[in-house]
Design brief:
Structural class: alpha/beta
Largest sheet: 6 strands, mixed
CATH class: Alpha Beta
CATH topology: Purple Acid Phosphatase, chain A, domain 2
Strand content: 25-35%
Helix content: 10-25%
Shape: globular
CATH superfamily: Metallo-dependent phosphatases
Distance between the termini: 41 Å
Number of domains: 1
Strand order of the largest sheet: 4-5-8-9-11-10
Number of strands: 13
Order of helices and strands: EHEHEHEEEEHEHEEEEEH
CATH architecture: 4-Layer Sandwich
């Protein structure tokens, strides 16, 4: 392993046990979250601080997050935990960028994001050699299958993926872990539901991203429910 060992989580919905277990077991160097830490009141400031003091964290927000609190969080080096729209953060040569929120036709809620906003953010990141692109919503047709077998992704996130052209696109929201490896060598990873035990371990360097491990516990639980 040559790059940064990175733990990818998402959709914790207030349940941090799997995240802490993975930090202990995997000993990663970086934590990336695809959003939905939990609604306001589900996770206390002290919980976030305990994680940030343990490991650098970069995150987008989804539709179940305390946006006010997330926007105040900073890593030990002063960098914001919440990835800024249209910009990137750089960690040992790895460039990480993201788009927060879920798609909607109009920005009626603070976690809604429109086609026009996603396009503008992606355009600002074009040609910037982004290594890791993080969204809560998913690119349509790529790692966007729902537990019911339908497709839950959006065209705007697919267009953004093409414009930003990252080594790996990380997403969540749909509560089903899945991985697509494209002919280009690019990866699209939906981490699944960390609240149900899902997470992934990646080896990330500026030129290459490899999946070291995927834990897809929610798929086993879903199969058991079907069996019952």
């Amino acid at each position: 392993m040559m790059g940064l060992k990175t733990l990818v989580v998402g959709d914790m919905h207030g349940q941090l046990k799997t995240l802490w277990d993975a930090l202990t077991e995997e000993q990663p160097q970086l934590l990336i979250c695809t959003g939905d830490w939990g609604d306001p009141g589900q996770i206390e400031l002290a919980d976030y601080i305990a994680i940030i003091e343990r490991i650098p964290v970069y995150s987008v927000y989804g539709n179940h997050d305390d946006l006010t609190l997330l926007r105040t969080l900073k890593n030990c080096d002063g960098s914001p935990v919440l990835l800024p729209h249209g910009e990137f953060v750089e960690v040992k040569g790895i460039r990480i960028a993201g788009v927060s929120g879920i798609w909607a036709k109009s920005p009626k809620k603070p976690y809604y994001i429109t086609d026009e906003e996603v396009f503008s953010i992606a355009q600002n990141l074009a040609g910037k050699d982004i290594t890791v692109f993080v969204t809560h919503g998913c690119p349509i047709g790529l790692a966007d299958e729902t537990p019911k077998g339908t497709h839950g992704g959006q065209r705007c996130f697919l267009d953004a993926f093409k414009i930003v052209n990252p080594k790996v696109h990380l997403c969540g929201h749909l509560h089903k872990p899945q991985l697509r490896e494209l002919k280009s060598g690019q990866l699209v990873l939906n981490v699944g539901t960390t609240a149900l035990g899902d997470y992934a371990i990646l080896d990330i360097d500026p030129q290459k991203v490899s999946v070291l491990k995927r834990v897809t516990a929610s798929l086993s639980k879903a199969a058991m429910e079907v069996g019952d």
